[in-house]
Amino acid sequence: MRRDARSVVVVVLVAAVVLGVLPGVATAVTRSGDTVVVAEDETVDELDAFGGSVVVHGTVNGDVSAFAGDVYVAETGRVGGNVAGAAGSVRIAGVVDGDVAGASGSLTLEEGSTVGGDVAAGTGSLTVAEGATVGGDLSAGAQTASIDGTVEGDAEIGADEIRLGPSAVIEGDLTYDGTLQRADGAVVGGTVERDDDLVTAAPAGTDGPLVPGWASVVYGLLMNLLLGAVLLFVFPSFSQRVVLEAARSPGLSGGVGVLSLVVVPLVLLLLVVTLVGIPLALIGSVLFGLLVWVGGVYGRFAVGAVILAYTDREGEWAALVVGIVAVALVVQIPFLGWVVNLAVGLVGLGALLLAFTSGYRRRRAERTATPDVGAVS
């Protein structure tokens, strides 16, 4: 009974945040697979897409929410609402009437493309090609930013290198942090000001430029999604066992997670004390850090599975995305956020270790039960 109550509490907290932030998801079309395509002669109301590639050749009347390797709105594509999500690369060649927001390795607005609203992105490289138009404001944290098109509002860019080409037009103000290269002919209708406080946070573990705080949150979400996708694609059966263990026995899994956080660092410390074990301790620290990250992703995966169990939706990919996004949102709540993050991570780590040990015992039992081929009765 206590376990069921605990699950209900988690579902209510997370679902409340998700439903509050993402209204209308229940009426959206959800598609997943290696390639998700809206054909040129096809029209859908809204699209939630999870896959290797998401391509829009046709019309989406509402929003597009995409978590994929690549997202592409083709020249014939039109999105009546917003385009949001996380991807390795995002390319807009058609028309987006609303905003474009999210995290990606690269974001490109190709020649002739139009974004009617704002563009807000955390990305490795940002390109606004000549002939591309942003109808609202542009806000970006990037390593490199190249503007050759038109921004009809203000632009705030934090990047290592910022380039305004000869055809660039920013009708409002430009606020930047980084190295600005402004070509002859580039037009800024308002003020041009450098603001060292424009950037506030950097993705953990990177040596790249700082990006706005919201971008680091989305960056972390993207990294978790990518790791989760790799785990689910490469180890589908094992991933299901880990998630099932976490969902069925959160108390046991959490206890094992706490125990591992105590025992493993002590063992690594003992290796350091012996001096000759320092190389092993260094390798062990890296591996354990990776294990903790993987466990955290599996914990989020389990949260998504629990949430979907209370809805009409199902599927491992949907559970992965829902769980990661839901926890990312809840983590932003003061005090409650770090508690939830810690709890989810411990449960996921413990479930991962339990799945490892149960799999080992099962394989050992199978080998023991296999009769000797050479034996004669």
Counting helices, strands and paired strands, the structural category is alpha/beta
Shape: globular
What low-confidence regions span 5 or more consecutive residues with pLDDT below 50? Answer: 1-27, 200-213
Report strand %: 25-35%
Mean pLDDT across the residues is 80
Rounded to an integer in angstroms, the radius of gyration calculated over CA atoms is 24 Å
State the end-to-end CA separation: 52 Å
Whole-number total of structural domains: 2
Number of helices: 7
Adjacency order of strands in the biggest sheet? 1-3-5-7-9-11-13-15-17-19
Order of secondary-structure elements: HEEEEEEEEEEEEEEEEEEEHHHHHH
Could you give the count of β-strands? 19
Structural overview:
The chain is 42% helix and 29% strand. By secondary structure, it is an alpha/beta fold. It folds into two domains: 24-210, no CATH class; 235-361, no CATH class. The strands form two sheets. It has a ten-stranded parallel beta sheet. Strands 2-4-6-8-10-12-14-16-18 form a nine-stranded parallel beta sheet, with no helix packed on it. Helix 2 (213-234) crosses helix 5 (278-309), helix 3 (236-248) crosses helix 5 (278-309) and helix 4 (250-273) packs across helix 7 (336-369). It is globular, with a radius of gyration of 24 Å. The protein starts with a helix and ends in an 8-residue tail after the last helix. The model is unreliable at 1-27 and 200-213 (pLDDT under 50).
